[in-house]
């Protein structure tokens, strides 16, 4: 296509995941060369404006990262190793998880350093709001440094974020981290891509099973639809000079307790099944529960919005309805919701 020969090359690592699929869909609308790298087959958006190249790669293979990012003007790093009963659960001492979550970032930095570009490539990284050092300690952990409350997964994310910050200070990359709030699918993508709590509870509700909360479900979360999260990355690329060197909180700015969230999911599903909403019940925490489950993880800074002009477009109620419709196999009916 005209213009593609000189268009910037943007590489998405982790393009086969939920966030990677959404980011790829956004970038495919642009006049760029787009390299989509995934462990599984990637979903190429239909009728892309971008010139799209697909690569199915095991990035832990020696030399694979250097091959994947070669010649890139920008790298969007969305790769993460997750395990256990939730996407944030990673066992201490999990060598593979550390290799993927931290080691691959060092590989990217090393590969970009070796290219010795006159203008460093952009490097955007997906972090988590729960990394924020401003997260208050739980009452039972008074006097404990907030970082000690982070999960292993979050500690991996924080180590990778710091490596990018160091490389940025050295002039190797122009890096930034987007610390994302709790993400959920809008039902656009394959259901098995979303392993998060919102999708899991939606599937339970469609199956007629009660939704269970721990500790009364009082912990608050900031919920962000996956498409809005994807647009945050394109907004960061557009405002790269402003965001370079920072770790930016990205969320809706709305605080919703876990109990309120689950009740809203139950109502959304009921609108599409025609059945009464499934109950939301308080239960004993599971064996894999963590102290951080009782903490509030919500947006505390609107600085990213101020710098980039990004703002979320999908209200939580609409997003939950779209997801419920997709899981229940019904058309979304977000207009005129009355319950």
UniProtKB/TrEMBL annotation:
<feature type="domain" description="NAD-dependent epimerase/dehydratase">
    <location>
        <begin position="10"/>
        <end position="251"/>
    </location>
</feature>
<dbReference type="InterPro" id="IPR001509">
    <property type="entry name" value="Epimerase_deHydtase"/>
</dbReference>
<dbReference type="InterPro" id="IPR036291">
    <property type="entry name" value="NAD(P)-bd_dom_sf"/>
</dbReference>
<protein>
    <submittedName>
        <fullName>NAD-dependent epimerase/dehydratase</fullName>
    </submittedName>
</protein>
<dbReference type="Pfam" id="PF01370">
    <property type="entry name" value="Epimerase"/>
</dbReference>
<dbReference type="InterPro" id="IPR050177">
    <property type="entry name" value="Lipid_A_modif_metabolic_enz"/>
</dbReference>
């Amino acid at each position: 296509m005209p213009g593609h020969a000189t268009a910037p090359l943007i590489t998405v690592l982790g393009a086969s995941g939920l966030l990677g699929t959404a980011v790829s869909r956004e970038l495919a609308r642009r006049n760029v060369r787009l390299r989509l790298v995934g462990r599984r087959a990637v979903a190429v958006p239909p009728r892309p404006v971008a010139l799209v190249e697909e690569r199915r790669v095991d990035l832990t293979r020696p030399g694979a990262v250097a091959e994947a990012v070669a010649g890139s003007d920008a790298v969007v790093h969305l790769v993460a190793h997750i395990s256990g009963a939730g996407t944030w659960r990673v066992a201490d001492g999990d060598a593979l998880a550390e290799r993927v979550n931290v080691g691959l970032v060092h590989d990217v930095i090393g590969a970009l350093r070796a290219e010795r570009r006159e203008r460093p490539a952009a490097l955007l990284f997906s972090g988590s709001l729960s990394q924020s050092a401003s997260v208050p300690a739980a009452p039972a952990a008074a006097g404990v440094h907030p970082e000690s409350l982070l999960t292993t997964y979050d500690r991996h994310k924080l180590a990778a974020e710091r490596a990018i910050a160091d490389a940025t200070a050295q002039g190797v990359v122009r890096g930034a981290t987007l610390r994302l709030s709790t993400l959920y699918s809008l039902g656009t993508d394959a259901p098995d891509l979303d392993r998060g709590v919102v999708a899991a509870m939606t599937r339970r509700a469609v199956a007629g099973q009660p939704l269970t909360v721990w500790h009364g479900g009082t912990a608050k979360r900031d919920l962000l639809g996956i498409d809005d999260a994807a647009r945050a990355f394109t907004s960061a690329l557009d405002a790269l000079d402003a965001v370079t060197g920072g770790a930016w909180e990205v969320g809706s700015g709305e605080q919703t307790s876990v109990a309120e969230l689950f009740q809203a999911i139950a109502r959304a599903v009921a609108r599409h099944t025609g059945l009464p909403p499934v109950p939301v019940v308080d239960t004993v925490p599971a064996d894999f529960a963590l102290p951080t489950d009782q903490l509030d993880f919500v947006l505390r800074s609107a600085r990213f919005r101020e710098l980039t002009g990004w703002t979320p477009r999908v209200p939580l109620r609409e997003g939950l309805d779209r997801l419920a419709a997709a899981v229940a196999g019904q058309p979304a009916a977000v207009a005129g919701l009355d319950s």
